[in-house]
Design brief:
The chain has three domains: 175 residues, 3-Layer(aba) Sandwich (Phosphoenolpyruvate Carboxykinase, domain 1); 272 residues, Alpha-Beta Complex (Phosphoenolpyruvate Carboxykinase, domain 3), CATH 3.90.228.20; 80 residues, Beta Complex (Phosphoenolpyruvate Carboxykinase, domain 2), CATH 2.170.8. 30% of the residues lie in helices and 22% in strands. It contains 18 helices and 30 strands. The N and C termini lie far apart (69 Å). The structure holds oxalic acid and manganese (II) ion. The site of oxalic acid has 6 residues, from loops.
Amino acid sequence: MASLTKNPNVNAWVDEMIALTKPDKVVWIDGSDEQLEGLRQEALSTGEMIKMNEELYPGCLYHRTAPNDVARVEDRTFICSEKKEDAGPTNNWMDPNEMWAMLEPMYDGVMKGRTMYVIPYSMGPIGSPLAKVGVELTDSIYVVLNMDIMTRMGTKAFENLGDTSDDFVRGLHSKADVDPEKRYIVQFPEKNTICSINSAYGGNVLLGKKCFALRIASFQGKNEGWMAEHMLILGVQKPDGDIKYITAAFPSACGKTNLAMLIPPEIYTKQGYKVFTVGDDIAWMKQGEDGRLYAINPENGFFGVAPGTNAKSNYNALASTKKNAIFTNVAINLDNMTPWWEGLDKNPPVNAQEWKGANVNGVEYTAKGEKLAHPNSRFTAPAENCPCISPEFNNPQGVPISAIIFGGRREKTTPLVYQSFDWTHGTYIGSAVSSETTAAATGAVGVLRHDPMAMKPFIGYNVGDYWNHWLEMGEKLGENAPKIFNVNWFKKDENGNFMWPGFGDNMRVLDWIIKRCEGKVDAQETPIGYLPKPEDLNVEGLDISAEQVDALLAVDKDLWADEIKEMRRYYDEDIAGKGGRIPAALYEELDKLEKRFGG
Ligand code: OXD
Ligand code: MN
């Protein structure tokens, strides 16, 4: 099939990759409905995809990955910059030539007997000055159909690139044999190139997402003066009609999708508050002409964690999955071909197919403590399905950001919310994000790990240089810089119960944050930053005592002494000791924090 572009840089690279991988057939993805429908039918006929109930879930498909291939594989993910020190201590590194010498034979002939799909796509609205183009080559229809939801895919992306530009990200993916021993997810930041092999799991193979929009883009952002961050973007419309936009960075599976789609409690909705979603996972941010920081969501859909999503926890996400969505590794109710997962409701289907494909009695199965859906099972849903999608979603200029929030899962130590003293202190707070691990990546769950800016697996260069880029952005933004906050929805009491209701009630915290941005509410100054005065946290209608509010806002000196000690160890041993170029200003912030506690 003939190329869809005259761009010689695209064509030369695609030809080279065809010669290497030797597919039987090459299909250029134009993005038309007819072409996509043909691919759906083909995937249904081979069993790669399964059709869900057409009345209840119109246009929805199901897919299961190999049981060994259900999450991102950080230990097999590499940043192959020319110099090792440029990858820094948070990344695996290999010399780019050595890496390619290993990968090339693996790709040689890998698509024999298969079709190569050439996917042009835009990250960001077509025509946006912040958008960028990628081309992914893949032997997976599942990838094509997911990229259709997650990006602006097809010939229109080439229109954005033009006939001569070389500014596109090359992505080569093959499922190969889905062999976990030969699985590699490799970024070559200086070459705008991504290679992914032996996986078919979303985060490893939808190359526009983590590989491009975070790892490659963070490197591009450093060089070009903008930021690529693991952040949701939401807008809070106040009763006077004014909308304040906020971004928030939490580690994977810590509730970014839930916060992005929050429904405020009634005490807010009846006053006229509304929340709009711009993005749930990634923000690209650049200074606008008026000096403020503007953000776009480079994605076009949501690749959300299914378990725990229900009408109460996230009505809007659930609604987004009701048509033209793809479900991966959830369970199927065989009676009516609908998806099911833990936390959807309390009624596991009796006649169930669990995520690996075995037919089981779901009631008995879950009673034994087995999971019907994989804990990292996902839905891929078009953003346009979301009932609260922002009218600015496709705005090529993006939305102006008033506040940036960091957070993680912390049982202790970190209070519900606090504000940094300034941008540099906020950058320190971002560098200090740590969180108890989840199922989104392979490895043990529930272990505390450092995850600076929630970007640990996604910074495409030296983490110290990344922090320095944050500081430089702060200088450039000056008084227009968004205010920086930290939140923790996951604090537990001595009985192990969550102290804060979370979900929609997080609006109460956003309310305080917005009022702080507007200078409308005072705060208590503590050694870690500004905290709400207890009376300023709106808990009307919540079953929460004054003591509990105090406990949520407590700054415990001993716990913070441990935290500071651990941060010093982290900076010294894990970062500086392993080649991380930590900016002096961040060490100073740590010293200042210790001093404020009297240390
Ligand atoms: C994701 C992740 O899929 O962070 O968004 O793992
Ligand atoms: Mn994510």
